[in-house]
Design brief:
- By secondary structure, the protein is mostly helical.
- The protein has one domain.
- It is 77% helix and 0% strand.
Amino acid sequence: MLQKKGHWKVYLAGVAVSLIFGLSFLFTKTGIEHVGVYTFLSYRFAIATTVILLLSFLKVIHVGKKPYWKLWKVVIFQPIMYFIFETNGLRYATSSEAGMIIAMIPIVIAFLSPFMLKEKLHWFQVLFAFTSFLGVSLIVGGGGFEKGALLGKLLVLCAVFSAAFYNIFSRKLSILFEPMEITFAMMLTGFLFFTFMSIMTGQFAVVTNLSSIISALYLGILSSTVAFFLVNYMLSKVSPTVSSLFSNLTTIVSVLAGSIIRHEKILFIQIIGMVMILASLVANSYLSSKAKNKTSA
């Protein structure tokens, strides 16, 4: 539960994280309008890697010497597969639709964990996974089944499963590596891989478009570094049940940002789909916490 002292700082951190992540789809969508996908990702991860190395040099953070090759399963799913799917998906899907679909990540993790981490599968996890699936179906179907629109939303859905597998493998390796060490391995891998892809596909170029530069700076500094510190601070003060509620705000921010700033059209049926996903997430978090407390009692 939330500690009494400094509770306002935790809420402020949670809101800040939600705003940063919620706006990330908007900045990605804007960034790839003038630059190739892999070139944009190359710049994003170059900035993130530079920031982490600078913080390490200044002794603000510590990145130890460890066998980072053991993280190969983690980095394959995140950042490689996740960002290939998400960024390419945003070429066709709107940032609002991406935000709604990405809200499924906690539900997919809860459904896969029993099979991959040997955790007990509860009846409500199956129920809410099915409810979330119906919610995504409304979001995907509501935006039409045109070739480009459908492809974009299916790619974002693939990003959801990539993120879920990343979380599971990262959880397994958290015994050997600190969160910042895993993050550093991810950022460095992203920089090397997407720079290579950018060069091999003939996309690589010096970015001069101001909106793309601003987007890369936002995603590289705020989404990959600042938000990371805020998330860890928040998790040190509140229970997972409380912290997971802020992911709901992330989805709402992404939807509102897409609608207000980019004037993206959101259908009522898609809103219903988003509500189904968010309701499933809240109910799943509550019942999971209740079941865990009952077991430990």
